[in-house]
């Protein structure tokens, strides 16, 4: 009996030891597996990070970032001309962004604020007047084109048919108004005070044989006013925008060799100090290219004339 009890005790003790050994072995194996998994995961993360760095480096090397030039412009013809220059600039590594404006005030204010690198919509007398009135310091870097002013028929179709007291609309901003009055004077409709020239205003009219009623309207609205007035003197760009052709529709046009043609050439304006920036030089070069010249001459048929 004592032998049987001893044998059972030894068998149970051996079984317990075997169980403990198996558990320890499993724990050790699990710890080893966890360590391997952690190391493998760390290696994967390191490899992923290295790959991202390599990809970023490769992207930076393969994608050359273009320099952006932001230019404000009237819709017609300035923005259209800039579209031609856009392709030329792209080949030289520049991205041209064109911001369109429908008035003559915001493009200069935006340029002064720094929202634009340049603008292209105005002539030198207008810029000079704007600088003086607003206390700005914007300068011209190039003359690009000239847009002949035209006297367009509204209710009255011919100059000789204008009746006493006929209504004539002109631009309401100083320099463009003077230009309109000079055109009316050239047609014998009015006479201006001697020496008034480019500074002429309605108050400088000294002779008005037909007692014309000359009203001032914002330049962008002149074409729309034709149905309400006998005639209107309209800026070249706004005439084009309204579907008017100065060589076909106007009853009188500024001569291309006139003082107005030289004085009122449309310019590229920038902030003083930016004249020699590489981006500005590239912009001017593109605008004065043969491609742009050909586009202007073939598209506008005399309504826009290159000045380079």
Describe this structure in words.
This protein starts with a helix and ends with a strand. A six-stranded mixed beta sheet has the order 2-1-3-12-4-13, with helices on both faces. Helices cover 46% and strands 21% of the residues. It is globular. It contains nine helices and 13 strands. It has two domains: 67-147 and 264-306, Periplasmic binding protein-like II (D-Maltodextrin-Binding Protein, domain 2), CATH 3.40.190; 150-254, D-Maltodextrin-Binding Protein, domain 2 (3-Layer(aba) Sandwich), CATH 3.40.190. Mean pLDDT is 84; it is low at 1-63. By secondary structure, the chain is of the alpha/beta class.
Q: Number of folding domains?
A: 2
Helix and strand string, N-terminal first? Answer: HEHEHEHEEEHEEEEHEHEHHE
* CATH class type of the largest domain: Alpha Beta
| Count of distinct strands | 13
Mean of all residue-level pLDDT scores = 84
Count of DSSP helices? Answer: 9
Distance between the termini: 128 Å
Low-confidence stretches: 1-63
* Helical content (DSSP H or I, runs of 4+): 40-55%
Largest sheet: 6 strands, mixed
Radius of gyration equals 39 Å
Query: Which strands sit side by side, in order, in the main sheet?
Result: 2-1-3-12-4-13
